[in-house]
Design a protein that fits this description.
- The protein has 153 residues and is an alpha+beta fold.
- The chain has one domain.
- Helices cover 41% and strands 21% of the residues.
- It contains four helices and four strands; from the N terminus they run αββααββα.
- A four-stranded antiparallel sheet has the order 1-2-4-3.
- Helix 3 packs antiparallel against helix 4.
- The longest helix has 22 residues.
- The radius of gyration is 16 Å and the shape is globular.
- The termini are far apart.
- The relative contact order is 0.20.
Amino acid sequence: MYSKEEASLLKQAFWTTFGQYISPQLSTEGLRVNWVNYKTGIKHIFFKMQADKSSASIAIEITHPDAGIQELFFEQFLEYKNILTSYQNEPWEWELHSTDEYGKTISRIYKQIDGVSIFNKNDWPELISFFKPRIIALDEFWSDAKYGFEALK
C-alpha cells in the first residue's frame, strides 16, 4: 500500500513518462499537441485518460451541467458512431447520464481494460500500448467531427 504522496508521485511519473513517449507524435493536422491534456476546443467535451490500481480507461466525456444539452451532445456523437468506430477499430461503451466520482452527471463514450495498475511499473508498457493508439484515433476522429459540434457550443 502506498501513502497518498507516494501514490501521487507514481501517477505523476507515469503520466510524465507517457507524455514523453507520445510527444513526438504530431496531431492529424500536423500540430504539436499535449496528448495527456488533450484540448477538444469545445467546452464540456473532454478526452480523458485515467488509470488506477486495477484498471485504465480512455473516454470522451460530456460534462455540460444542463442534462438536456448534454443529451444533445451525446446524440451528436451517436450520429458519428460509425465514423468513430471506424477510427477506433473496436466497440466502445456508451453511457448517457452516468455519475462521475464527484456525483456529477456526465455522459461517456469509453474503453476500459481491467487487471492493470498504474502503481505497478511492469504494467506501464501495457498502459502506454492501451492509451497511445486510442488517443491518436480520437484525434483523427475529432479532426473530422469537431465541426459538427460547433453549433452546440
